[in-house]
Amino acid sequence: MARVLIAGCGYVGSTLAALLADEGHDVWAMRRTAAALPPGVRHLAADLRDPASLAALPEALDRVAYTATADAFTDDAYRAAYVDGPRNLLAALARQGQAPRRVAFTSSTSVYGQADGAWVDEDSPAAPAGFGGRRMLEGERAFLDGPFPATVLRLGGIYGPGRASLVEKVRAGEAECAPTPSWSNRIHRDDAAGALRHVLSMESPAPLYLCVDREPAELCDVYRWIAARLGVPAPRAGSAAETAERSRGNKRCSSARLAVSGYTFRHPTFREGFGAVLGG
Predict the structure, then answer these.
(1) Dihedral of the CA atoms 30, 36, 42, 47 (nearest 10)?
(2) In this structure, are residues 71 and 81 in contact, taking their beta carbons and an 8 Å threshold?
(3) For 65-107, how does the pLDDT look when each residue is reduced to its tens digit (9 = 90+)?
(4) What is the phi/psi pair of residue 71, to 5°?
(5) What pLDDT, on a 0 to 100 scale, did the predictor assign at position 280?
């Protein structure tokens, strides 16, 4: 069985920790508090922003997953979570003579600046328009250029139990359909964790995977589907100004590489994913 550290063990990381612990692996969850950790997962109190707190990591780690998220949508918070944190953790592992067989970093599809509905994959140019994507790319480079075999997963919008803002938006009658198509890409929490488990268990994974479901969806189609399931009115027509705002991230992401690697999605489209959120 493997010895695994999950750094920044939150929404996705806790699900990954539960999967690995259920398989019998030794799992440590690095986070500031031990609240709500899955059974069988050990707590490691540390702060990725503070190198001194990383001085005593578990010995002989086989796998490391970095799943930390920013505390706020600011450049400083993103730098701390996705640039300083990775550098601090990798440096601590190296100082302690650790030699993990695989490290994984959860990035985001926000690294792509395409806004015209184009298809993108792992070979598409990453030229983010905002600070968030730029900081994510810095974190990716820290791992990929670091001392350990690394894989990056670029996640789409994460949703799942307790995190379904689109559902609440439709339920409240606040969803609006833009006059022109606005493509969206998402991943259910269980598939984000499952894909991480998958790449951590592979002997020779690729350095980069897009981690989105198998069907990019026009946002209004998602709204309408949710409305029908809830039995509430369909979303109203929105304004051209709203379309311009959404088009900043208007792209269709392909997860073909992840699927070809052998990963089987629990929720291959938004229908299965939101169906699970809504209770079947």
Answers:
(1) 20
(2) yes
(3) 999 999 999 999 999 999 999 999 999 999 999 999 999 999 9
(4) -75, -20
(5) 67
Pairing status of strand 102-108 against strand 157-159? unpaired
Is there a contact between 272 and 225 (Cβ–Cβ < 8 Å)? no
Cβ-based neighbours of 75, under 8 Å, separated by 6 or more:
131, 135
To the nearest 10°, the Cα dihedral for 247, 180, 168, 77? 0
Domains and CATH numbers, the chain: 3-161+187-213+252-265 (3.40.50.720)
Question: CA 85 to CA 74: how far, in whole Å?
Answer: 15
Residues of the chain whose pLDDT is less than 70? 239-248, 280
Measured CA to CA, the distance from residue 52 to residue 57 in angstroms comes to: 11
Sign of CA dihedral 235, 240, 245, 249: positive
Q: Which residues pair with 237 in a beta bridge?
A: 177
Judge whether 164 and 277 are in contact, CB under 8 Å: yes
